Amino acid sequence: MRRVINRLPSRRSKILLGAMPFILVIAVYALASEARHAADAADKLMPGLDAFRAAMSRLMFQVDMATGKKLFWADTWASLSRLGIGLGISAVIGLVVGILVGFIPYLRATFEPFFAALSLVPPLAVLPILFILFGLGELSKTVLIVFGIAPFIIRDVMLRVAEIPREQIVKAQTLGASTWQMILGVVFPQVMPRLISSVRLSLGAAWLFVIAAEAITAEAGLGYRIFLVRRYLAMDVILPYVVWITVLAFVMDYALRLAHDAIPWTRFREGG
């Protein structure tokens, strides 16, 4: 008898099975929305699919009179810019500091406890301090993202550096390599895949910090729009924005996964 754990779905079956939960959620929502509107035509908590289409069409294709922009795309660009700058700075800091602290014993002994403690500080708890120090502009939002995820990336890179076999370091020294040559030729190539994985794992937290900062002070952004229209219980805007944020996060995660898999020695290491 063939066991269920040995039955593998085909590629088409995987696509259909993966789409089923989404279709089921949409169908359940549509039925629940219809039932609520049958009881109260003015219900705002669960707007119908037509309301979503109308609201998003207005935000995506109509120019806002106050700002002169199409709000949906302006919000998307504002949030992605903040996220991209924050992630980029965090990745560079994590790579440079993580390699140096992880590779040089005296730096590791000095800074490893510090970064361990820093990574445990709740970033949202220091958000008021960041606003006081850096103002209410873009700088404080970027610093929040960097403060929130850079310590995690640094620690992850440090751990990867520590995993490098000691024999490789000894062999490089035997061949006459300097510290910088070992960092660039031995450590850096082996750390790059782990850095991309760390950034992938940080995406959720980075989006959280962007939304939180925009909710408090911003003039554009996906988080800003969600918290602005919540005053009017505009679920026809809030829910599509939440879905859009999820789609953006998924696309970014998928792109990073492709970048990770594109590094040849990651496939070699996995035996592919």
UniProtKB/TrEMBL annotation:
Keywords attached to this entry: Cell membrane, Membrane, Plasmid, Transmembrane, Transmembrane helix, Transport
CDD domains: TM_PBP2
Record bears the keyword Transport: yes
Pfam families xref list: BPD_transp_1 (PF00528)
Transmembrane domains' residue ranges: 83-107, 114-136, 204-226, 238-256
Membrane topology reported for the UniProt record: Multi-pass membrane protein
PANTHER family recorded: ABC TRANSPORTER PERMEASE PROTEIN MJ0413-RELATED, ALKANE SULFONATE ABC TRANSPORTER-RELATED, MEMBRANE SUBUNIT
Principal subcellular localisation of the protein: membrane
Gene3D superfamilies reported in the protein's UniProt record: MetI-like
Domain ABC transmembrane type-1 positions: 76-260
Any single GO BP term: transmembrane transport
Name the record gives this protein: ABC transporter permease subunit
GO CC terms: plasma membrane
Subcellular location: Cell membrane
Annotated organism of origin: Alloyangia sp. H15
Superkingdom as given in the UniProt entry: Bacteria
InterPro entries linked to this entry: MetI-like (IPR000515), MetI-like_sf (IPR035906)
Keyword Coiled coil part of the UniProt annotation: no
Protein family per UniProt: Belongs to the binding-protein-dependent transport system permease family.
